[in-house]
């Protein structure tokens, strides 16, 4: 909830943890696990926080944020994206407020990481199995059945699942960043280098921009065609034999190839060819990279 304190029923007062105060120096303990308690009954907040006050997981303590309606819950989640767990009451300002929040967390906030545990004080108000099937939640409890021990077990299990998902998401983000860099490098090389990819049958599946320029053809005019689309005549038999034997023996070949550009000028290419295959399997793709080479010896 945005405010630092929320008026409670009677004389009770729940003080919210301020996310801005939770960034700690390396000398202090790790950033705590943030848990959002969503319930319109202040006593539930008090009891829940007390029951989990000494809990830790992976050396990190628990920190509690509080919301007393579905609207407050969504506002807190928007403002604090690293909340690990939401303990969510079903019935608040409406009979299905908690269910609406659960759905909006996934559909509107696009938060797939946070774990959602629904709690209800009115068992039988909605069938548990239909809620678990219809909503992307992680557990569902009747408050009367959720003892301190069961609450602790549920919270730790939820935090463990969140930690695993968080690590997987970080790995995916890192891999995506590396892939983007590789694509940028490939695009840069494609402007200058001659890069050609062939499928297992020798048909062109990709040609770099520079190669297409020399061939005088657009990529779509080359894709799906054999090498004759780039080299009209037959390659010399000794060259074909050398390439075939190199690929069969080492999975790679390098050497010089002579061909002609679209304007008829001679091209001398220094080429490297690599066969890509699964371990023990036949090649499924060939990649060729060539550079223009002047065979004329210097003075």
Automatic annotation (TrEMBL):
CDD domains listed in its UniProt record: PAS (cd00130)
Sequence positions bearing 4-aspartylphosphate: 89
Domain Response regulatory span(s) in chain numbering: 34-196
Keyword Flavoprotein: no
Domain of life: Bacteria
Presence of keyword Phosphoprotein: yes
Signal peptide: none
Residue span(s) of domain PAS: 180-227
UniProt KW keywords: Phosphoprotein
Name the UniProt record assigns to this protein: Response regulator
């Amino acid at each position: 909830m945005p405010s630092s304190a929320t008026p409670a029923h009677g004389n009770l007062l729940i003080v919210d943890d301020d996310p801005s105060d939770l960034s700690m120096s390396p000398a202090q303990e790790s950033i705590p696990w943030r848990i959002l308690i969503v319930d319109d009954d202040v006593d539930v907040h008090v009891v829940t926080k007390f029951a989990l006050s000494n809990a830790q997981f992976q050396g990190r303590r628990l920190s509690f944020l509080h919301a007393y309606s579905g609207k407050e819950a969504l506002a807190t989640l928007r403002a604090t994206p690293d909340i690990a767990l939401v303990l969510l009451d079903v019935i608040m300002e409406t009979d299905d407020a908690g269910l609406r929040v659960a759905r909006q967390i996934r559909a509107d906030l696009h938060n797939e990481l946070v774990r959602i545990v629904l709690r209800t004080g009115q068992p039988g108000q909605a069938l548990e199995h239909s809620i678990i099937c219809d909503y992307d939640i992680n557990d569902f409890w009747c408050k009367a059945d959720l003892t301190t021990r069961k609450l602790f077990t549920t919270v730790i299990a939820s935090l463990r699942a969140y930690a695993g998902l968080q690590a997987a998401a970080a790995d995916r983000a890192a891999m995506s960043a590396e892939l983007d860099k590789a694509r940028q490098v490939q695009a840069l090389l494609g402007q200058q280098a001659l890069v050609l990819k062939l499928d297992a049958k020798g048909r062109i599946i990709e040609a770099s921009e520079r190669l297409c320029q020399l061939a005088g053809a657009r990529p779509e005019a080359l894709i799906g065609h054999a090498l004759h689309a780039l080299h009209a005549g037959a390659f010399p038999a000794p060259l074909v034999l050398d390439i075939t034997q190199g690929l069969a023996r080492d999975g790679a070949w390098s050497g010089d190839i002579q061909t002609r550009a679209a304007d008829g000028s001679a091209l001398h290419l220094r080429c490297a060819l690599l066969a890509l295959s699964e371990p023990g399997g036949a090649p499924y793709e060939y990649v060729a990279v060539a550079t223009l080479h002047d065979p004329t010896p210097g003075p």
